[in-house]
Amino acid sequence: MKFKQGVIVDDIEETISEYGSAILRKVKGGNYQVLPVNRVYIPKDSRGKCVLGIPVVRDRIVQQMILNILDPYIAPHFSDHSYGFRKGRNAHDAIHQVEAYTNEGVCICREL
């Protein structure tokens, strides 16, 4: 089975209806093969460029499927103070929490 190349997010419903069962069979069978990520070079200030890897749409869907299955089991074991890549949390939430701690007078300092 050959998957279509160049699928974009807007085509996802059509792609899932056409290939969804086959993708799931491959994942369950342990023979799903990810495609190479698309490398995009993002300019940095004066230090050159940063490489960003963007997975193809079908690989991103498989990643999300796996996360949806595993998250209920692993999320309860994360620290309440963890904000990175957590469902329902983001960098702004972390900043607000730091501001709240600061307003409460909480200071975690160590001597150098």
TrEMBL record:
InterPro entries: DNA/RNA_pol_sf, GrpII_Intron_Splice-Mob/Def. SUPFAM superfamilies: DNA/RNA polymerases (SSF56672). This is Uncharacterized protein. It comes from Suicoccus acidiformans.
